Give the backbone structure.
Amino acid sequence: MEILDEGAGELVGWRDPDENREWVRANKSRALKDKRMTVSDAVRRFVRDGDYVAIGGFGHVRVPMSLVYEVVRQRKRDLTVAGKTAVHDLDILIGGGCVSRVEVAYSFGHELRGLSPCGRRAVESGRCKVVAETSNAGYQWRFLAAAMGVPFVVSRNLLGTDTFKKSSAKKVRDPWSGKPVCLLPACYPDVAMFHVPRCDAHGNAQIDGIIVEDFELARAARRVIVTTEQVVSDDLIRREPHRTVIPFYVVDAVCEVPWGAHPAQMPYEYYFDEEHIRLWLQMSASEEGTEDYFSRYVLGVQDYEEYLERVGGIRTLNRLRQIEQYRPPLPEQE
Amino acid sequence: MEILDEGAGELVGWRDPDENREWVRANKSRALKDKRMTVSDAVRRFVRDGDYVAIGGFGHVRVPMSLVYEVVRQRKRDLTVAGKTAVHDLDILIGGGCVSRVEVAYSFGHELRGLSPCGRRAVESGRCKVVAETSNAGYQWRFLAAAMGVPFVVSRNLLGTDTFKKSSAKKVRDPWSGKPVCLLPACYPDVAMFHVPRCDAHGNAQIDGIIVEDFELARAARRVIVTTEQVVSDDLIRREPHRTVIPFYVVDAVCEVPWGAHPAQMPYEYYFDEEHIRLWLQMSASEEGTEDYFSRYVLGVQDYEEYLERVGGIRTLNRLRQIEQYRPPLPEQE
Amino acid sequence: MATTYTETELLACVASHMLADNKSVFVGTGLPMIAAMLAQRTHAPNLLLIFEAGGVGPQVPVLPISVGDSRTFHRAVVASTMHDVMSALQSGYVDYGFLGAAAIDAYGNINTTVIGDWARPRVRLPGSGGANDIGSLCWQTILILRQDRKKFVERLPFITTPGYLYGPGAREAEGLPAGGGPYRVITQLGVYGFDEETKRMALVARHPGVTVTEIQSNSEFEIIIPAQVAQTEPPTGSEQRILREIDPTGLVVGR
Amino acid sequence: MATTYTETELLACVASHMLADNKSVFVGTGLPMIAAMLAQRTHAPNLLLIFEAGGVGPQVPVLPISVGDSRTFHRAVVASTMHDVMSALQSGYVDYGFLGAAAIDAYGNINTTVIGDWARPRVRLPGSGGANDIGSLCWQTILILRQDRKKFVERLPFITTPGYLYGPGAREAEGLPAGGGPYRVITQLGVYGFDEETKRMALVARHPGVTVTEIQSNSEFEIIIPAQVAQTEPPTGSEQRILREIDPTGLVVGR
């Protein structure tokens, strides 16, 4: 199985599986214990300058925004972020000056809503460096390899492109078919963050709807912070154990944060706050606007609850719930 | 990435991923269509002499026994069976003269209940050949590779043992760590069979409790037959789409077979029929007994409903339901 | 009987006509989503929608904004994982995939990563997302983009997603699954396929009112022009009506 | 104060004492299950049970018969998949794994596959099941088997599951995860560990009433006997009572 080619992208997040096993043995508790803490404590204890950070959900869906804002508030620096279709979260982190490097599947854009002025400015000025390229499936399977405790996973994407050339993948000949295949190295982020609808105090987290790549990512990361709309009883989790996507033994911190994904969507609970996303895109068009945004919504607020008040409070949140749950607004009163 | 070692076990079930893609393109329908049929039709249409057969569930749990008996009734021959902790199903197929080859993770035994006289007799006489060894995780990951459409998956088990030497795995040097790793070749069975609690007419199948390896196996196999306790409406599936483990597009046949796992356990529905398993173990201790068993319970009955009558009918089945659901029997009447 | 229609309506209808019934399509947001929903409501009711974040076969109530949006798994048959749908893609279960692009070359390779130098880009674009996966792994990709000489280029600064790479057999030689590749390119001027022999872009049909000269002059590379060039069907009134139902606020169609 | 106890009760109690609280154990059916449940009800209430078919952290109401039995995921914290739990095992999340065996050698390698020739066996046994996975991937395996000269052998006809293979460093040289391997062997005569230097079996403790001579004469290979040999604690009355609660019909303990 000769190596036919290899990408020149920087290999970030890879670890020797034996080294990671030792780390798991020493650091991941198998005990059902209470891991509840505040967002501020969770970020203080589990996010460090220089970390490789990966964030759950997908695009503007099910993103742990309270943690993202807190990382900015605590002025974490020099992070490498997994651009695994990372949009608003990555943008805020870049705007907050936390990010120096990104491995990109999809970054610096907001899907249909347009490109990200803030992310583009950082990359085009060289302030933030793209260290490697991959694709969504490429990231997914890098996390899969880590979750399995193996050094790599085989795939058939990336091949033949510049995406491969700027990736950390290798091309080898499959010893069975004789055909070239792509090897994707495992990716073990230092810390992964998730927002879920329900989780018990021990960290058994359940997700409604699509799981995206959170199953693999939670198992791949060294440290895991889960924010949840609601901390539920152990009993409730045990009634539907098939719904537990993230098991307690990979979780380090559990924070109860109702509306914790705003302005992202929380499936079945609340819709994207398009107005707020638009506001960010407008304000982040300039450095000054970006600063204004942060002093108004992040640095200038004490906590996430104050942030929620600033973005419109209960009235806004109720409206987002109505939209998500397909309840038409009342007809305008005369 | 040099090849350091390779097992001498026969490579069964492997396919070139491109060849399988072509097959999927031509043979697996993407249309939501009614796939309901009788067990007899499903076996006639989708199980062929010489097939590599893999059966869902685990041990004596959630096994599609109505299909297993039907394969015997239709006198299918020369099957290769995946011994992926295959117990009663494999035993019945061997006893029925259907099996000539087995790839073994766990076979010829009934866990705590003891070894299988029938399976052992077949192997020890040479009538049934063990073509390769693997482990439970080894099989699981062979199916994972096939489900992913890649030629192999990396693992760190099997190495250094005779299990490896008699497997179809290879040992190579991981190009990142420099350490030896095991490569498990993809396994695409010709046909896989499952029993599930609920499934719609199109083949969207939901499973309660542990999934074991059915997620991967259903996606790995070329043809898929699903028997179900109940065919439910499309609407019911769409209300809880996160519970769909086997998607319709991999399913070829759907058969409604209440109590379709007997004498195996159906989680939350009915318990193992220990009496019947014991009866089989006793009768299969001799060739004559085995023949008697088949004429009484398989060849001598018209269909699965008649089989259920022979094993004790409603009274037996109600008792098994009581045990599974932890309902104590009524106190004996004076 | 001249009807009025917008460019976006035309592109949506042309894309929708390419999707056969009883096939599967990997859908992105925007125009592809509109085209797929239009196909379902016209000639392809049994078209299977698959979204890269995990939604399979939803009954989409409202136009989704994102590929992970809960609208993409509303009353779905499966609400699954990226691993599952990407594996289905890699295994050959997906017939069509839609792609957009910042630029394309004659072999249907596309760039969505960068303009200028990769290490110090003039314009940094979002990158592959699922595009490389779709372009590598689905059976037939359909590319939709605006055509001009800056977008139809001789040489891409960066190949994000494979088309036919550098010619016949190149995909297979690199290890990509056999038999895949770009099927059609749709622009505001016409519809293109790829020449069997050279795998270079060839005109299939021009839109009403567009000349072959316009088509050629809006491309840096030479487009193969066959002797007979068909003309695309303009949107019908009924199609336009359905498009308005699908996108009542004009989020996409109104652009 | 002499109490009466059966051999099975002794083995269950000895095995149970090895399981520390707040650790995880991959559990099979039979004696390992009994030992783990006993540990949970005595010194290790927070011992995490994991079953290879997918059950994690159940509140087991009744002794399960099979590793896939619904009792193994009754009120579990996760009802998962084999892929998930085997991956957790491979990733280092599992502290203990129990194994039974038909035979063992001095390095703790075990055979559960075949007696005689593999191609035409005298006795065909079930094979690895999850044993090779456990022996390869968990941190510390605990082996339980009856000891005699036919089971403690110089040379196994087939190594199903790795112990220390052929000595120090062998596991790592073959590619198995570093730092794993057999921790203890429990038989009806005593408890064994493995010598640091040679990785060969060494006596740790003998059961009450058993002599070192008996221990040695019931093994084909030489067992390292240290200067000081401890004696195992016999089951207490309280342990015996709990064992009867766990297995009221004597399915396992009655054997």
Observations:
- The domain at 3-137+187-283 of chain B is CATH 3.40.1080.10 (Glutaconate Coenzyme A-transferase).
